[in-house]
Input
Amino acid sequence: MILAIDTSIGSTVAVVEPSGVVRAEAGSEGTLGHAELIGTLLVRALDEAGIAPADVTHVAAGMGPGAFTGLRIGIAAARAFALGRGIPVVPVASHDAAALRHLDTNPAGPFAIVTDARRRENAITVYDGVDDRGLPRRVAGPELRPRAADLAADPLTAAADIVDTPAISAAALGRAAALALAAGWEPTGELAETEPLYLRSPDVTIGHAPKKVSA
Amino acid sequence: MHVTGPLILGIETSCDETGIGIVRGRSRAGERNILLSNTIASSMDEHARYGGVVPEVAARAHLEALQPAIERAIDEAGVSLSDIDAVAVTSGPGLAGALMVGIGAAKALAVSLGRPLYAVNHLVGHIAADILDADAPPLEYPTVALLVSGGHTSLLLVRDLTSDVELLGETVDDAAGEAFDKVARILGLPYPGGPEIDRAAAEGDPNAIRFPRGLSRASDMAKHRYDFSFSGLKTAVARWIEQREAAGEPVPVADVAASFREAVVDVLVTKALDACAQHGVPRLLLGGGVIANRRLRDVALERAAAAGVTVRIPPLSLCTDNGAMIAALAAELIAEGRAPSTLEFGADSTLPVTQIQVAVADPVAVEST
Ligand SMILES: [Zn+2]
Output
C-alpha cells in the first residue's frame, strides 16, 4: 500500500493500492498551515483507507516545485514515516502528479503544468503523452517564468496547452508512484535524485564589509 | 520484574543544528534519566560565508540531515526505532521554517510508529539538559537560569521544570552570540565569532576600553532590570575602531576583543546574580552555546561564589542546541504523567517560556502509556 504526501502547494495525503486504486485522500487546499495539518492528515488518510501504518509498503513524496517552506514539511514527513517503518521513499515530481491527473480527462497532446512559484513567478513543466510505464512524458522543465510572461511566445510552452494548476493531488502522486513501482522502480540511494525541486538558490547575499557607524 | 522507563527520541531543528537525542526516561521518582545518544549535524559551515545563520540555508540543511541523524542516533544508542516509546520535538521558539522541518518529521515518525508525541519549548529544553548530567546532584528549585546562544539571551526563574518557568528578561535586540559574530566581523575575524573573539582576546586587556553595559543604568532598572541589549555595544565597538582608524592609529585587536567580551560577560553575570539576589534564589543554571566561552564561565563561577550562589553548568555538549535536551524535557513530562500533545500544533517562533509543552491533549481522551 502506497502512502502519498504532497505539500508543494496545499497539504494532501492519500493511500493508493499498488494497482493504482485510490483508497483514501485527505487534504486542504490552503497554502499555509502545512506543519499544523500534516499529522492529522496522515491519521485521517490511514483511517479512511482502513489500514495501519504497518500496512504501508512505500511512501511517495511530492518533491515540488513549490513554496520551499511548505514543500519541505511533506518531504520531511515522508522520509520520517518511511524511516519509522523501514520502507522506501519514492520521490515523485509534484508536476508529474498534476500531469497524470490532466491526462485522465484530456487527450495526450503537449501540455504545460503551471503552478504558482511565488515572487511573481510560475513553475512550468511541459509534457507530451505517456511513456511505456504509463507516466506522463516530461519533455521540458521544470523551469521558472515570470507570471506576466507571454507563454504563447515562449519556446518552452509555445506548442503546449497551458494547464493552470492550483492544487496537487496526493492521490495522483500515489498513482504515479504505483505506475513507477509496477514498472520496476527501485531506490537508488542517490541523494541528488531525491533532492527537492527548489529551482531557486537560497535568497541570501554574501556579507559585505560592515557599514560605517560614525557620522 | 525489571521495570525500565520509556525510551524517548527528541528532535531539535530550531536554528542551525539538526539535533537528535535518545533518552531513557526515569520510571520512578528518585531515578535518573539516562542519555543514550546525542547526535548533532550542524550547518554552521554553510553559514560562515554569510556571517550569520541564513534561515533558508538552515532549513534546507535540516531536511537533508534529519534522516541520517536519526539513523546515527539510533545506532549509537544501540536501539531500534520500533523500541521508541515516545517522540519529542521542539515547537519553538526559533526560526519558523527550520522548526517546521523537525515538526513535519516528528509528527510522521510518531504516526508511523504509533507512538505519542510531545511538542516542547526549546528554552525550557536548555534547562532540561541539566538533568542528563549523571554526575550532578538532582536539580533543585527554584533556580535562576541564564540561557545564552546565538539565537537567544534569556534570564528565567525556574520553580519547576515541567510546570512553572517564568521569563524574567531577555534581549531586546541582538542575542549575545550574535553580538560576538557581528563584532568579530568588525574586527575582520571569521564566523562564528565566539571562539575567534576568545582567541583574539587571550592576549588582550579586558579593562583597556570601557565599552557600555546595555540596559544597566539606574533608569533602566524599572522596566529592563533583567533585559539585555547588545546592539549598542556592537555600535560602540565599531565607533571606537573607526575613531582609531580616523586618527591614523593602529587598532589593538586583542584589547578590543577582550574589552568587548568583558562587557558582554559582565552584563550577563551581573544581571543573573542580581536576579538571584532579588528573588532570594542561591542557585544559577547556565545554558546555551555561548556558555562554551570560558571567560563567561570563569567570571560567573567566581562572582557567584562571592555572592553565595551555586552554579550549575550542564556538559558543554548539552549546552549547544541538541535533541537530547528535548527528549529529556519530554522524559520529565512523561514521568509527571503528562498527556502527550495532539497532532495539531505548528511552529511558534516566539513561543513563551511559560508554555513548556504545547497542544496538550485532553488527558481523558488519551490512553495511558
Ligand atoms: Zn538554543
